[in-house]
Amino acid sequence: MSKGVTKQWPAVWPCSARPPHIPCVTQRAAIARAAIMNGPAITILRGLPVPQLAGLLMLMLGVALTEGVGILALVPMLALLGQAASALPSWAEPFARLVDLPMLLVFFVALVAGRAALQFALSLAQQRAQLKLIDRWRHEVFAALVRANWRTLSAMRRSDHVSLIVTSIDRLGYGFSNLLQIIAMAVTLGAIWIVALWLAPALAAVAVVGGLIVIAGFIPLKRKAHRLGVALGQRYAAVQGSLDESLRAMRLIKSHGREAAAIATMQGGMTELRSAQIAFHKAASRSRALLHVGAAILLATIIALASARDVPTSVLLPLIVLFGRSVPLLDALQQGTQQWAHSAPALAEAQAVLDTARAGAEPPVGDALPVVPRQSIALDNATIDHDGRHRPAVDAITLTLPVATTTALVGPSGAGKSTLADLFGGLLEPDGGDLVVDGKRLRGEGTVHWRRSVAYVHQEPVLFPASIRENMLWAEPDASDPQIETALRDAAAGFVFDLPSGVDTFVGDAGCQLSGGERQRIALARALLRDPALLILDEATSALDAASEAAIADAIGRMKGVRTVLIVAHRGMLTDLADRIVHMRDGRIEHVENRRKVVA
Ligand SMILES: Nc1ncnc2c1ncn2[C@@H]1O[C@H](COP(=O)(O)OP(=O)(O)OP(=O)(O)O)[C@@H](O)[C@H]1O
Ligand SMILES: [Mg+2]
């Protein structure tokens, strides 16, 4: 891309120095905090289809019910074993008369087997729901980013998105599975407490009140876990960001001898990430220890009360089993709540990016055919005014490119050449004025549609780690072999046919197995394969040697009178080809130098 964050701004952008219109990590965390208060649990559950949610709830209820009945079956079982049979509760007497011990044991085993089957189905259903949720969020965030306009994208940091899509959304899925666990746990706990209250109301009431106090104690822990979750999200983004930047800047790092600094930056980020993870683990372990101590105190109280009230063993034992089951459930409930609070900021983070990207969404144009201009491509009074800048990058410029002519834009750095080229290419929509093709003013959908007719070649061509053929087909998937060959020859890239594997030669990571000039000619061939109505070359030869520049200039020269070409360049072979040279400074046209007669 000709401009944007990566070009004019430092790679790693601290929040304090970032321009106000760019959401930095801390700002995003603030958005995250705001969103968490609005019930992310409800938001996330609403995303599930109703039948799926109902199915999950039914399975949870089934698991809870079988658990409660299983514990209840202990009462007649103990009575039949002769344990305090005289003190059997009245509801259990008919059962004890009707069934014998083997029957009860078979029933018990069948119940546990049924519960195991339900739990199996539940865990599978939960896993499916979790993976589906992750897939949906990944898809929505990525699709929203791809559909956002260039201005929105250039104000965002790429590595933040990688961190969001890869890490945060995974955390979100994990949080969601915790949320489902919380619901399942709460349902089971409810069932257990109902059974306990029925068995021995007074004693169970003590246990239930104790349990409710523990649950109330979760609230501050949840807030803390949420704060730690926000911090963790930031650290992940920072680590991923510095990793991404360093790997991209490896050549620079080596040539500047900055290896140690790069390793130290990465190490620093990892240390901070680890400390955020340990802080969360510490908080979770501390609360678990507190829960266990509290549970022991409560159990001791219940047993003391039971012995004072002469509660029969056949009731006391199941009650202790119920209590014993409640503690790990409460424990899991607490851990689940903390995990959820810890992961939930990822939802707000994803939502914030989604909202920003959707706010800058471009209208879809479906598979409309490219526009073929017959007369001219023009800008009428076009202005681009970036937030936080003293003057417009392009200031009310009116310029016409007659079809089949070559125009060069020259001027000092920052004059607005790339911005003007992006306006002609439909990548940017003017803040004021219009892009006019054959007299038709283009806006919104029209501008996006126009882009189908444009091809760019930049100073640093983007080649994918694939074969030359695949790189070409990326731009035009239906292109035939002869079309690929013609485009390569037109772009002065005939050298491809002398390579041992020809068009099937692997170009290496980012094209590193080709020279700069070869890469650039393949990028030009790929652009030509689209048969663009407007070809834009933004400093396409500034990094090349004279021979490579001459090869490209030769290719462009052969397009004269056939294709509309816009060249952004400092003086050189390419500008010499132009029918007209437009001199720019401070976002305006200083003067136009006509080389040949141009019919406007
Ligand atoms: N996304 C952006 N946000 C804010 N300002 C921007 C943005 N992109 C470009 N600018 C500013 O707009 C002005 C014109 O930039 P542009 O990239 O068009 O210059 P240029 O003439 O192509 O320069 P160069 O020869 O260095 O490539 C510059 O002052 C630049 O800092
Ligand atoms: Mg530029």
Give a structural overview.
With 600 residues, the chain is α/β, with parallel strands linked by helices. The protein has two domains: 49-359, ABC transporter type 1, transmembrane domain (ABC transporter transmembrane region fold, Up-down Bundle), CATH 1.20.1560; 376-594, P-loop containing nucleotide triphosphate hydrolases (Rossmann fold), CATH 3.40.50. It has helices at residues 5-8, 25-36, 40-46, 50-72, 74-80, 93-98, 101-147, 150-154, 158-199, 201-248, 250-255, 259-309, 313-343, 345-359, 417-424, 445-450, 468-475, 481-490, 516-529, 546-557, 573-577, and strands at residues 376-384, 394-402, 406-410, 432-437, 440-442, 454-458, 534-538, 564-568, 580-585, 588-594. β9 (580-585) and β10 (588-594) form a beta hairpin. α7 packs antiparallel against α9, α9 packs antiparallel against α10 and α17 (468-475) packs parallel to α19 (516-529). Magnesium ion binds at residues 2-3, 417-418, 538.
Largest sheet report: 6 strands, mixed
CATH secondary-structure class of the largest domain: Mainly Alpha
Q: What is the fourth-level CATH superfamily of the largest domain?
A: ABC transporter type 1, transmembrane domain
Structural class: alpha/beta
Separation, N- and C-terminal Cα atoms: 29 Å
The beta-strand count equals 10
Integer average pLDDT:
83
Basic shape: elongated
CATH architecture of the largest domain: Up-down Bundle
Helix content: 55-70%
As for the number of domains, it is: 2
The strands making up the biggest β-sheet line up spatially as 6-7-8-3-9-10
* Cα-based radius of gyration, to the nearest Å: 34 Å
| Share of residues in strands | 5-15%
